Amino acid sequence: MERSPDLAAAIDGAAEALIGVLDSAVSRQQLAVSPTQLRVLSLLSSRPDTNVNGLAELLDVVPSSASRLCDRLEATGLLRRVGDPHDRREVRLVPTPAAEALLCDVKERRHRAVQAVLDRMPGRVQQELLVALLAFSRAAASAPEPAPGVAARSA
């Protein structure tokens, strides 16, 4: 299958535009947490059994850095350290209800910002984009893991 040489560049450009839209929807002036702290809360919200070492692996940082991030989030009331009921030596990181509300608010703001852009596109193009994005997601999910030494880009 022959592909347009500009397709990858167009996708990269669209991804950058999307990141800009998402970032502007939740500027630092609107949030009491840094982008890194927001990422930590998002990761922990979707992975309820995570401990500091697991978080450090997800962030690709040393455990002491992950622990300091958690200290700051705990001090602001957005994170709790909770003992694992099955292993007293383990401590799980749990976002508080305030953190979950913050994540919900961020998601809603981002959704509205993306919808505002979509509203400026013709309906037919929106439908084509939906089909293409679903196909892209399926292809990405079935892709083999990157070869060792190939750095994956993180958001």
UniProtKB/TrEMBL annotation:
The keyword Transcription applies. Keywords: DNA-binding, Transcription, Transcription regulation. Residues 4-139 form the HTH marR-type domain. It comes from the Bacteria. Pfam families: MarR_2. The keyword Transcription applies. PANTHER family: TRANSCRIPTIONAL REGULATOR, MARR FAMILY, TRANSCRIPTIONAL REGULATORY PROTEIN-RELATED. This is MarR family transcriptional regulator. It comes from Micromonospora thermarum.
